[in-house]
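So, who can interpret the following?
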Amino acid sequence: MKIAFIGSHSTGKTEMVHQTISWFIRNSKDYAVVNEAARLYPGGINENATIFSQGAIFFTHLRDECAAAYNGHQNIICDRGVDNKLYAERVRDRLERRLTEEEAILMEQITRTAEEWQHTYTFQFLLQINPFWGVPKAIAERSDDLEFWRDMNQRALEYSEENKAGNIYVLEPIKEKGPGVYLPQVMEIVRAKFPGKFTER
């Protein structure tokens, strides 16, 4: 099983990774975690990203997914997935010039890889902007630019509508804020696909 939590920043993805890990532990399930590659990237990210920086982040993340599978883990929990491509697309869409040949080649590689790779996930859980939680704060690598935040949220929703793998589940916003608020939705969906395998809540 491979699970990816996707969506704009400051929507609760990393917290859901941690809560899902705890749920797997309670059910004595093997797991590996693929952390968000952008957190360690030394170059431009968010509003300062380039197609090359986003390409590096995109393919680094996929490399880490491959490493987790190669190491024999049956369950892989990802903080992001191929939704990293949406950030490269945003850079492309906002350029006031034509792509260079190198940029065009890289964008094509990202697009084609994402189209194929999306089928490798058992579940892609999309966390959208929660209107009950307020706006993001600039902490560490997070951006507090509201236009950027909302644009990426919209792109994620459009990606879910265009998804051809049939494995995206858009989680409903929860008014309460705190650890695990989305976990009941995740548990219900996973249990429906794998009945009897997760008995502990």
Remarks:
- The chain has one domain: 2-193.
